[in-house]
Write a sequence for this structure.
């Protein structure tokens, strides 16, 4: 607890720098990342973060010292060059974007490695610690770095704020944006530049490999919670900030722990939880609705069996046993048994010894499903000109979906029919 | 002799990666190689902790397991959660890599590993890692044997499964209509990629593995429409890159893996330029103009 208070009082200037730095860069990366994700360019961050290496080395060779500002400029130039090259290759050859990304990433990083070995052999003492730029060391952020980060983060925030609408439009509907006269290519270039800026800012904290996660992971998680882009960006930023705080806190309580990787692990965990449990889009809720629908379909199909059997002798409430039921429709017996049990507990069926019979409520429900089936068959033959022997399968699926409003509309359109295309009666309720 | 072993190692990795990379490009899955080559880190660390040594076999097993885990997670999130593929790749491999780095920091005293070696590799040390038999005969560098074995496995895999791999890459729907399981071949290919990545990375590093997985096949893809030619061009390019990369590194006294990656880029740029020029000439001809470079009229 003491740790917690110490940490969040920000009394220690070191803590203050690290926390502020982490939060700024993870928030700005997440913000830009949301647009990158929507444009399906999630791996672009990976390409840029690897491609900054030659720029950093060139800046070092040029100045002979580890001047943060100069190295950021160098990093920006090669990162930007890499992205433009990727776009050019993808546009002008039959190679897909992912191949272009992988190619540019490895070649640029390879060039950086060549320069790096050259620097290491040059014997310049200042080169030690240069690899922090590549592998990240958030815990070593100092005051001057923080000033640079804050400026960069502010630039990102303002740029995204100003062009929010345009970016959103380009991300969702490119041709429409073009038709409206938006300068789509210039906007692409601007987003590219902002991406490079975000990567360059973040790389000192988390390193080349993990930078891709800072851009994409919070945005990917946020995508599962909303369909509204403003909310999505806000949620992504919130996830990013939380991950930044958590990472800094973990490495504060356990100094051996690296901040950057923990930031990534925390935001990955958030993302995994979102993939699984986010309402509507998550795996578990989707599975639940799917199961529920399957149950409803199985129930309605079983009720229909009783109706069809009843139709043969106009005795709808008669008891039926398993063999009789399985004769009407091919069905898995265990599924049939569990469905029968459920229907009994919902009082749509009642048991009579080894037999089951429709209750009044069950009869009404069964009649309605059959009615929808036959109405739809009639609609297909009359309005869509489909032959009567081709309409059954389609009706078999739609009968579970039609709402009461649609039912009334169908009835009205068909002129309150009595009989279906197979000349059987359409039940009335 | 040192040069020979290094070039041989490079060529072996280049050929193995390139052959598999051809299929990855055709399946638009190039970045999966990138993901696997990074995602092996935690597997290596865990294998190292459990076995307590840098023995090859436990490392291969550990890394192979996390490599396959990565492909499985990517596939799972893509299919089940409907996550776009690029995001699935980005989220998965960075997560596994982060876990790897954390494990290294936690067991810093016990693990003689760092992330540099995963990214850069140590191809220059290959000739030192000799395989000495019990009675003292020196048979040459160990990695060369391992890589040759992997190459053999990959060549056999492609030879035996050529029809299936080709069909599932070009026309998955037709392949499944013929009763070929696309999922099975997907995972077989991924297993082959994992095996290759894992056995190569120690010698050449993740970056060069990516360069070899994507570079030569991408170059060959621009030059031909025929899969067999593409595979052949990839092999030739791989050998050439290994040679040229080594001599460039020798001449500059710089990172060998880095130089090989740069040569890969140069080869691609040449093929790209050639293809652009050809296309422009075609466009000129179709407008009734003479090809560029010839005097008009």
């Amino acid at each position: 607890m003491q740790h917690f208070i110490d940490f969040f009082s920000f009394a220690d200037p070191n803590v203050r720098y690290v926390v502020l730095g982490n939060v700024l860069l993870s928030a700005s990366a997440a913000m830009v990342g949301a647009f990158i994700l929507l444009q399906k360019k999630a791996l672009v961050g990976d390409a840029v973060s690897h491609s900054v290496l030659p720029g950093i080395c060139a800046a070092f060779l040029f100045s002979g010292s580890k001047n943060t500002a100069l190295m950021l400029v160098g990093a920006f130039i090669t990162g930007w060059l890499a992205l433009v090259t990727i776009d050019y290759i993808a546009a002008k050859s039959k190679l897909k974007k992912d191949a272009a990304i992988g190619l540019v990433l490895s070649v640029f990083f390879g060039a950086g490695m060549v320069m790096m070995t050259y620097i290491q052999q040059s014997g310049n003492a200042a080169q030690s610690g240069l690899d922090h730029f590549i592998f990240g060391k958030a815990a070593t952020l100092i005051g001057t770095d923080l000033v640079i980060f804050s400026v960069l983060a502010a630039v990102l925030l303002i740029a995204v704020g100003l062009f929010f609408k345009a970016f959103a439009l380009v991300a969702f509907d490119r041709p429409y944006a073009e038709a409206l006269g938006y300068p789509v290519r210039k906007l692409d270039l601007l987003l590219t530049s902002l991406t490079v800026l975000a990567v360059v800012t973040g790389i000192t904290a988390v390193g080349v490999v993990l930078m891709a996660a800072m851009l994409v992971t919070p945005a990917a998680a946020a995508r599962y919670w909303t369909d509204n882009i403003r909310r999505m960006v806000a949620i992504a930023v919130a996830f990013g900030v939380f991950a930044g705080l958590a990472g800094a806190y973990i490495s504060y309580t356990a100094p051996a722990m690296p901040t950057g990787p923990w930031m990534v692990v925390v935001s990955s965990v958030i993302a995994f939880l979102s993939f699984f449990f986010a309402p509507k889009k998550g795996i578990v809720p989707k599975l639940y609705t799917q199961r529920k629908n399957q149950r409803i379909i199985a129930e309605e199909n079983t009720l229909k069996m009783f109706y069809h059997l009843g139709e043969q002798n106009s005795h709808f409430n008669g008891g039926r046993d398993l063999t009789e039921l399985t004769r009407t429709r091919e069905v898995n017996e265990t599924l049939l048994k569990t469905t029968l049990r459920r229907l009994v507990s919902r009082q749509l069926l009642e048991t009579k010894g080894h037999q089951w019979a429709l209750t009044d409520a069950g009869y009404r429900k069964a009649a309605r499903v059959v009615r929808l089936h036959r109405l739809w068959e009639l609609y297909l033959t009359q309005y869509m000109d489909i032959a009567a022997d081709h309409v059954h399968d389609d009706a078999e699926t739609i009968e579970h979906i039609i709402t009461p409003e649609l039912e009334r509309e169908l009835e009205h359109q068909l002129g309150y029919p009595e009989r279906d295309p197979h000349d059987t009666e359409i039940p009335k309720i | 002799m040192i040069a020979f072993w290094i070039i041989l190692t490079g060529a072996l990795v280049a050929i193995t990666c390139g052959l598999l990379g051809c299929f990855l490009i055709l399946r638009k899955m190039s970045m999966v190689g990138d993901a696997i080559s990074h995602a092996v880190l935690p597997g290596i660390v865990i294998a190292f902790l459990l076995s307590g040594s840098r023995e090859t076999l436990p490392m291969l097993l550990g890394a192979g397991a996390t490599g396959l885990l990565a492909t499985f997670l990517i596939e799972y999130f893509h299919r089940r959660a409907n996550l776009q593929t690029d995001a699935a790749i980005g989220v998965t491999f960075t997560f596994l890599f982060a876990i790897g780095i954390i494990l290294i920091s936690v067991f810093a005293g016990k693990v003689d590993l760092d992330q540099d070696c995963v990214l850069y590799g140590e191809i220059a040390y290959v000739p030192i890692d000799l395989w000495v038999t019990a009675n003292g005969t020196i048979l040459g560098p160990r990695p060369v044997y391992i890589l040759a074995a992997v190459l053999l496995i990959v060549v056999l895999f492609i030879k035996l499964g050529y029809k299936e791999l080709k069909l599932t890459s070009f026309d998955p729907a037709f392949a499944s209509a013929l009763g070929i399981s696309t999922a099975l071949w997907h995972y077989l290919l991924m297993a082959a990629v994992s095996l290759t990545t894992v056995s190569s990375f120690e010698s050449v590093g993740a970056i060069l593995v990516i360069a070899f997985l994507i570079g030569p096949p991408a170059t060959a893809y621009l030059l031909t429409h025929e899969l067999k030619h593409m595979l052949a061009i990839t092999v030739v390019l791989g050998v050439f890159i290994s040679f040229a990369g080594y001599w460039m590194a020798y001449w500059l006294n710089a990172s060998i893996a880095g130089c090989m990656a740069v040569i890969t880029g140069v080869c691609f740029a040449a093929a790209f330029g050639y293809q652009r020029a050809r296309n422009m000439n075609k466009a000129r001809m179709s407008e009734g103009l003479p090809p560029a470079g010839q005097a008009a009229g």
Remarks:
- Strands of chain A lie at 349-352, 355-358.
